[in-house]
């Protein structure tokens, strides 16, 4: 006997959520509505633009709700009127209230970009890469009041390459999570889902990134500096000040070779290499960007800026 399709309401806002939205649109289930955060001003002109999820939902002809407050009675009435059996969440960006959780008869499930219970919270991919993890994945979990603490319904693993940046890994996890989510919804419709409780004692948290995370500590080992460079890409980016100017570090490569100089010291500034001393080892800067300028290879940067061995990066101008 084929399970009856479910009526699904989707909660999501950024690009990470779009593959899951597309997968639901292509599934046998009925997408009855999309909830995303309000449009926000962006760019230098501070013009207001629709986010990726809203744009995709509008193009697909799906009703969109954008509550400023999840406790708003008008929103709750509108959500209930959709008659959803199930809610699906993918990077919505807000903690859902008890009133929202109570509306779909089968509750809500979430696409989370980590192998729970590790890296609950807002920046799981970035924090995993900063920590030097070699493995990550996606967890489909039931949404409960506690942050990312609900029982797990499905998981998928993905290795992290030595030089991969957060945007690349996150984009791939979105691609992996989309079909995994639809498979889980299919099983929920058939009543065949096993829910595995998380081990709360093993939980770790991935706190939201801020601009303050950008400042680089050259006293750390070279591998740690490299992991921070790629983990903070594409925002807020690792950065440090060189000769009074903020230099954003976009790509790097670590080396265990002894530096023999204080951390942050330029060791080599040849046309083909820009090498900096770390707390232990060396960091080869592959791609950099002066604030307000375009990204450049190390070769391009050195061709246009006077940098010499012995110059030193500093945490402030």
Annotate the secondary structure layout.
Layout lengths: L6 E6 L5 H9 L3 E6 L4 E3 L4 E3 L2 H8 L4 E2 L7 H9 L4 E5 L7 H4 L6 E5 L7 E2 L2 H7 L4 E8 L9 E8 L6 H25 L14 E2 L15 H10 L6 E5 L2 E11 L10 E5 L2 E5 L4 E9 L5 E2 H7 L8 E2 L3
Parallel strand pairs: 1-2, 1-6, 2-5, 6-7, 8-11
Antiparallel strand pairs: 3-4, 7-9, 9-10, 12-13, 12-18, 13-16, 14-15, 15-16, 16-17
Structure overview:
The protein has 317 residues and is of the alpha/beta class. It starts with 6 loop residues before the first strand and ends with a strand. The protein has 8 helices and 18 strands. The longest helix has 25 residues. A 7-stranded mixed beta sheet has the order 5-2-1-6-7-9-10. The chain has 2 domains: 200 residues, Rossmann fold (3-Layer(aba) Sandwich); 104 residues, Roll (Methionyl-tRNA Fmet Formyltransferase, Chain A, domain 2).
Which characteristics define this entry?
Methionyl-tRNA Fmet Formyltransferase, Chain A, domain 2; 2 domains; alpha/beta
Concise summary:
The chain is an alpha/beta fold and 317 residues long. The protein has eight helices and 18 strands.
């Amino acid at each position: 006997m084929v399970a009856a399709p479910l009526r699904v309401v989707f909660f999501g806002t950024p690009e990470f959520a779009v593959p899951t939205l597309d997968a639901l649109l292509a599934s046998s289930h009925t997408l009855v509505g999309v909830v995303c955060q309000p449009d926000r001003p962006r760019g230098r002109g501070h013009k207001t633009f629709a986010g990726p999820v809203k744009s995709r939902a509008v193009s697909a002809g799906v009703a969109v709700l954008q509550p400023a407050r999840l406790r708003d009675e008008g929103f709750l009435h509108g959500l209930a009127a959709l008659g959803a059996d199930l809610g699906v969440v993918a990077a919505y960006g807000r903690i859902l209230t008890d009133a929202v959780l109570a509306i779909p008869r089968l509750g809500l499930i979430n696409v989370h970009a980590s192998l729970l219970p590790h890296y609950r919270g807002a920046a799981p991919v970035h924090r995993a890469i900063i920590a030097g993890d070699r493995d990550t994945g996606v967890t489909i979990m039931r949404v409960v009041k506690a942050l990312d603490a609900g029982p797990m319904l499905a998981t998928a693993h993905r290795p992290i390459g030595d030089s991969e940046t957060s945007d690349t890994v996150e984009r791939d996890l979105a691609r992996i999570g989309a079909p995994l989510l639809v498979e889980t919804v299919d099983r929920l419709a058939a009543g065949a889902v096993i829910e595995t409780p998380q081990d709360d004692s093993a939980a770790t948290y991935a706190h939201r990134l801020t601009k303050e995370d950008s400042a680089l500590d050259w006293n750390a080992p070279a591998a740690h500096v490299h992991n921070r460079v790629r983990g903070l890409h594409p925002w807020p980016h690792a950065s440090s000040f060189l000769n009074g100017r903020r230099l954003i570090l976009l790509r790097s490569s670590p080396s265990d070779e002894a530096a023999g100089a204080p951390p942050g010291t330029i060791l080599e500034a040849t046309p083909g290499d820009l090498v900096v001393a770390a707390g232990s080892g060396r960091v080869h800067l592959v791609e950099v960007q002066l604030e307000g300028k375009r990204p450049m290879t190390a070769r391009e940067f050195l061709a246009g800026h006077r940098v010499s061995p012995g110059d030193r990066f500093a945490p402030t101008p």
